[in-house]
């Protein structure tokens, strides 16, 4: 009974490289959310996706960041040309199909991204 | 816009005693859910308890209970019989129709043996 799976757990990139973070939601969950946690802060919403659709990307920076949740495979958060300020923990959460509003979001263990 | 405020950056309590973590929020909606999440050093986000705004009865989960004051927009978490394993960051969060969680800044709870 796997929970939300995120990989890698730790990712180190040099400035200017690309970072790809993967998230496989819990079985039966079709809503995926990405959050970012800077050191000593709470989680901040980035993007909400359903299969093949971006529902809400109001928390995602307009440049360098993109997210997808294809029909097959995990959700991907991509950060191009990373900068030091992208260093953070990135969490994925999922909730079931339907009225996700009242379904608690289940979180993965996060990916800690470090930029050298 | 929704906001969540946790005014206590750090709290400490003696093992076996009771501690209350504060949370206030702001929303213009009447229908929403409130949550407390726990984040231990392992960094996992663990759901502790949730409260539906339209329910007047305070939610309870074993040693964890909330004091939900809707008019005051307050949602505090009470931990009874504190245990060493309760040491963690605790985040208060709200969700409404937009389906995105809005988190507070967190309270770091230390349990003194």
- Number of continuous helical runs of chain A: 0
Strand segment tally of chain B: 12
End-to-end distance of chain B: 41 Å
Q: Which pair of chains forms the biggest interface, and how many residues does each contribute? A: A-B, 28 and 25 residues
The outline of chain B comes out as: globular
Protein structure class of chain B = mainly beta
Order of helices and strands of chain A: EEEEEEEEEEE
Write the layout of secondary structure elements.
The complex is a heterodimer of chains A (116) and B (113).
Chain A: E1 5-7, E2 10-13, E3 19-24, E4 29-37, E5 43-50, E6 53-56, E7 65-68, E8 75-79, E9 88-96, E10 106-107, E11 111-115
Parallel strand pairs in A: 2-11
Antiparallel strand pairs in A: 1-3, 3-8, 4-5, 4-9, 5-6, 7-8, 9-10, 9-11
Chain B: E1 3-5, E2 10-14, E3 19-21, E4 24-26, E5 33-39, E6 46-52, E7 60-61, E8 64-69, E9 74-79, E10 88-95, E11 102-103, E12 107-112
Parallel strand pairs in B: 2-12
Antiparallel strand pairs in B: 1-4, 3-9, 5-6, 5-10, 7-8, 8-9, 10-11, 10-12
How would you characterize this protein structure?
The complex is a heterodimer of chains A (116) and B (113). Chain A is mainly beta. In chain A, 0% of the residues lie in helices and 51% in strands. In chain B, strands 2, 5, 6, 10, 11 and 12 form a six-stranded mixed β-sheet that branches. A four-stranded antiparallel β-sheet of chain B has the order 3-9-8-7, with no helix packed on it. Chain B has a two-stranded antiparallel ribbon with strand order 1-4. In chain B, strand 8 and strand 9 form a beta hairpin. Chain B is globular and about 40 Å long. The termini of chain B are far apart. The model of chain B has no long low-confidence stretch (mean pLDDT 93). At the A-B interface, strand 4, strand 5, strand 9 and strand 10 of A face strand 5, strand 6 and strand 11 of B.
